[in-house]
TrEMBL record:
Family statement drawn from the similarity comment of this UniProt entry: Belongs to the GSKIP family.
A cellular-component GO term for this protein: cytoplasm
GO annotation, biological process: regulation of canonical Wnt signaling pathway
Protein name: Gsk3b interacting protein
Stored InterPro entries: GSKIP, GSKIP_dom, GSKIP_dom_sf
MF terms in GO: kinase regulator activity; protein kinase A binding
Pfam families: GSKIP_dom
GSKIP domain span: 25-125
Length: 130
């Protein structure tokens, strides 16, 4: 199941912060973290690895307690290490267009948390009549 939807508020998803025609990946990484923090054990933008306008690194621990270092670029997100703040240049992992798609492939616990959040949101909408 590939998920490209944020259950709480799809208007919070940002296409990036534009600075002279270039996305600021550090700001985008912050937005990525805030969008899915509810569905993982731990997630934050790396302070140890150098981020730039064109690349940022995100550390994530899934609900299964697996740790990953993710790279965020214009091409998307991909796993670059299997520990926090680890970049393995020899890894050639698939790019994902969204954090939802990437976490969906890595973590059954993410899928469950995401599904539960979506169900709760739908129930609230049904109760309010919207």
């Amino acid at each position: 199941m590939e998920v490209d939807f944020q259950p709480e508020d799809s208007s919070s998803f940002r296409e990036g912060i534009e600075l002279g025609g270039v996305k600021d990946m550090r700001s985008e990484a912050d937005a990525v973290v805030s969008d899915v923090l509810f569905a993982v054990n731990e997630m934050y933008v790396s302070q140890s690895l150098d981020s730039a306008l064109d690349v940022a690194y995100i550390n994530v621990q899934t609900r299964e307690t697996n740790r990953y270092c993710l790279e965020l670029t214009e091409a998307g997100l991909r796993v670059v290490g299997y520990a926090f703040d680890e970049v393995n240049e020899d890894l050639s992992t698939q790019y994902h267009e969204t954090i939802y798609s990437l976490l969906d492939t890595l973590s059954p616990g993410y899928r469950e948390a995401f599904g539960n959040a979506l169900l709760q949101r739908l129930e609230r909408l049904q109760q309010t009549g919207h």
